[in-house]
């Protein structure tokens, strides 16, 4: 009897051991941030450098093309508008493709599109050809949020905020690099060289695509548990760490009941795959409609609608401040004394001002890094939005050039910090199955703000209505800060699934 009782206890303990499971978050927490994530950071960061350079390029391309091809002011502004329109379409499209066909698929296709057509646009024989090619470059650049989400899905929850801020430095690197490149190239060569050189970061990504891993969260969400485990094992080897004991599972509620115990781990995986087969089949049939229904479901509706507005306001303010930097001083002089400045002097000021305000993003990122994992996402976003609003306030009246530059420097720093936390917060709110789609739609709505802001930042200023223009920015930022307070969830330290 003692022998039988001991054998039974041994079998029961062995079965319990075989049933141990762990999630992706458990594995990431144990392994920590190591060499593997550093490589993912470098690849995704280069994608953001490429996007930042293509966006900053819009500040320099229009004036030089207008001069060479004798374009009207409307045709010049259309060069920027078509890129934002392409980014709007691309942000939504790439997000949906990423959730349906994988993060790596988007990384490859968008990089090919941006690099190839970015280089071809440098060879454009006429304005119409350049317009079409830049539109498709905008579609490719719209994938930037997928690079960010892909990186975040490899980062442990405990320090995800800090690493997202570090990741955002790649955007600042891109803006400073493009401003420096334009300053050098446009004075010595032509705008065609600038377009070609701006496409280089995307070309650099292509040789390394073969070694990029798929997101283990995406693989789990699509029942590819064996491949997800293989990615985590590869990560553990690179980080010289060990995976948790047991079998990888997607959600706690999908753990197999103890009645179905078998000595083979593969049986657990097959059961989970069977549990999700019907759900995935329904999702594949319903497509975009199903994703939108989930984003606007009872649990996510409030977060989704508030994110849409804050993304719009953040983009409106970010691009608006960039335009204010290059326009405000000259417009003040023009409105007050009717002086006309030479084009060469105006362009010189544009390069200098853009370079200086690009540097302003660094202190904004450092500030957000210090606050985000201590103060929380919501509070940090709210404070930075209100601080940006405060910096812009004195500009309702004409100020001297030094004070104006200082205020815009502070506003750019706070705006960049707030946008960075927003780009961290949005992927943390949504579940893996609709994460890229949700962030993509929010990003697309944000691009509308990028299209609308020139009407305020340039149109009102050119009409000598500085006070009205600044008050519009103040109102948008104030409402964005209130919206951040109303977010229903604080995601600091929260698992992404």
TrEMBL record:
It comes from the Eukaryota. Residues 40-492 form the Major facilitator superfamily (MFS) profile domain. It is a multi-pass membrane protein. It is found in: Membrane. It holds the Pfam family Sugar_tr. GO terms for cellular component: membrane. InterPro entries: MFS_dom, MFS_sugar_transport-like, MFS_trans_sf. SUPFAM superfamilies: MFS general substrate transporter. Keywords: Membrane, Transmembrane, Transmembrane helix, Transport. This is Major facilitator superfamily (MFS) profile domain-containing protein. The keyword Transmembrane helix applies. It comes from Urochloa decumbens. The chain crosses the membrane at residues 38-58, 78-97, 106-125, 131-152, 164-185, 191-209, 305-324, 355-372, 379-397, 403-426, 438-461, 467-489. The keyword Membrane applies. Coiled coil: none annotated.
